[in-house]
Amino acid sequence: MDIRPESPTYGKSLGAELGDALRVEVENEAAMEALGAHLAQAVAGDGLTVALQGTLGAGKTTLTRGFLRARGHQGKVKSPTFTLVEPYDFPEGAVYHFDLYRLTDPEELELLGVRDYFVPGAICLVEWPERGEGVLPVPDLRFDIRYRDEGRTVDMAAGSVRGGVVLAALIQLLLSDNTTPILEPTLD
């Protein structure tokens, strides 16, 4: 992995703080799954809400698949476009995968009982979070996945103290991984 930090605080601390950001260039589907697996490792316990933003086919579900497989899920992982949420139970706690693409009004989330999912200890991975704005809690982490010539660019930012802790752990994992085809992680 080629690491090129571009942050003035890089040499001082590898920790992330509220508002810190990380950019990773992801070269292929396997690398996107690996990024999801690293995120699962970085979470290590307590709950977290992650907003996964990007156009159709950008890799939001692929990242989620890597997260869930790292937690031990063996089955298929597909986007819950029609059901809106897919629950996964693990010994470490529940993970909820949301896809809000077909949501026409954020208030529909109230009918779904969305508040029952965003509870302490639960991990919520939310695709198309902007469609639930005003009803969903502020995410701890925001992932913005964009196409580039070859692969994807993933911008990650902490939105809470908990998100900053997880982002710091993710940075450490990416810095120590020499086997995953993830290119050019940079701190902003």
Explained architecture:
α1 packs across α4. Strands 3-4-5-2-6-7-1-8 form an eight-stranded mixed beta sheet. It is built from four helices and eight strands, in the order βαβαββαβββαβ. 26% of the residues lie in helices and 27% in strands. α3 (108-112) links the parallel β4 (93-99) and β5 (123-127). Residues 1-16 have low confidence and may be disordered. With 188 residues, it is of the alpha/beta class. The radius of gyration is 16 Å and the shape is globular. The two termini are 18 Å apart.
Main features:
188 residues; alpha/beta; 8-stranded mixed sheet; disordered N terminus
Distance between the termini: 18 Å
What are the secondary-structure elements, in order, as H or E? EHEHEEHEEEHE
The quaternary state of the protein chains shown equals single chain
Q: What do the pLDDT scores average to?
A: 83
* Shape by Cα distribution: globular
Q: Tell me the total number of β-strands.
A: 8
Tell me about the biggest sheet?
8 strands, mixed
Measured as a percent range, the helix fraction is 25-40%
Which band does the percent of strand residues land in? 25-35%
Low-confidence stretches: 1-16
| SS element count, helices | 4
Structural class by SSE content: alpha/beta
Radius of gyration: 16 Å
Strand numbers in spatial order across the main sheet: 3-4-5-2-6-7-1-8
